[in-house]
Hints:
The structure holds two protein chains of two kinds.
Chain A: E1 2-6, H1 10-22, E2 30-38, H2 43-46, H3 51-79, E3 84-92, H4 94-105, E4 109-113, H5 127-135, E5 139-143, H6 147-163
Chain B: E1 2-7, H1 11-22, E2 30-37, H2 49-73, E3 78-85, H3 88-98, E4 103-107, H4 122-129, E5 133-137, E6 140-143, E7 149-152
Parallel strand pairs in B: 1-2, 1-4, 2-3, 4-5
Antiparallel strand pairs in B: 6-7
Amino acid sequence: MKVIVAIEDELFGNAIIDFIGTQRWASGTEFELVHVIDYPPTSETIGELCCIEAQRMFDEEQAAMQKLLMDLDLRLIKLVPDIQSEQKILFGFPKDKLLHEVEDTKADLLIVGSHGRRGFSRFLLGSVSMAMLSHAPCSVLIVKIPAEKRAETEKKMAASANAT
Amino acid sequence: MKVLIALDTSLAAESSLDFISRCKWPADVEFEIVSILEVTTGPFSLWSTEEDAVNAHLAAEVVDLAIDRMANDLPGATVYGEVLVGGIAERILAKADEIRASLIVLGHQGTSRQGGFALGGVAERIVQAAHCSVLIVKPKVVICPDGHHLAEEEGAAV
């Protein structure tokens, strides 16, 4: 069985790995942790970017994501022994790239976090998750963060918003 | 761990069960299989009693068959079954909260939307409103040269 895990950020990445850890998986199950870097940046982010700054942020994001995928991969292997896993960073429009990845690898299952990353969609179902739900050719598991953990994070976010 | 499996009378229900049988589950897993009997409200319900009886029979049969199948495929698992009456999404969400499910499993019909939980309707509402994770099971799809989608038996080895 081949499983693609779409990692958006640390919060949902960890929630997804936790969920995978509560399940049992057949030995030899292949996991692929994928993060798609939005490149070229969409209109939402382009305003704050100019050439040199853009390149710097891009490099930073790439490095941060590589580290995140590595950390999550280590946790995954610790939680679920006897599986194979690899990490992949893709560049492009997240929805397209993820769909292509699922099609190319003929994955049996796609795991995504339930919430978006930007603005208000953080609290609703993310547009990427929704697109995957309707268009992915394979089964889709949408992982939600348990309520108590979410309340904690929202509190943290509110605190940081007050501080700025 | 509690898993709520929502079945309808379509082929998608079959592929949900296939998928569940192919997965490995924790030893303490409990499955709750539900089928929803959608009853029309308002004055029209007065005339549709015969159809309701047929649907009620179908819904009960789906649950019975599924319980038999789970007992066969996953010996040792605890399986409960129930037919719920009311709005599909509402009843599934209420049941998931009631049993504190950690996962809801829904079948997805694919391109044909008759008799199944059409995405954009029930499945979308459940995914949006559920407090737990949701697994949408889709039958494997092959695209024929003439552009039609054919559901293919899920044959991948686990």
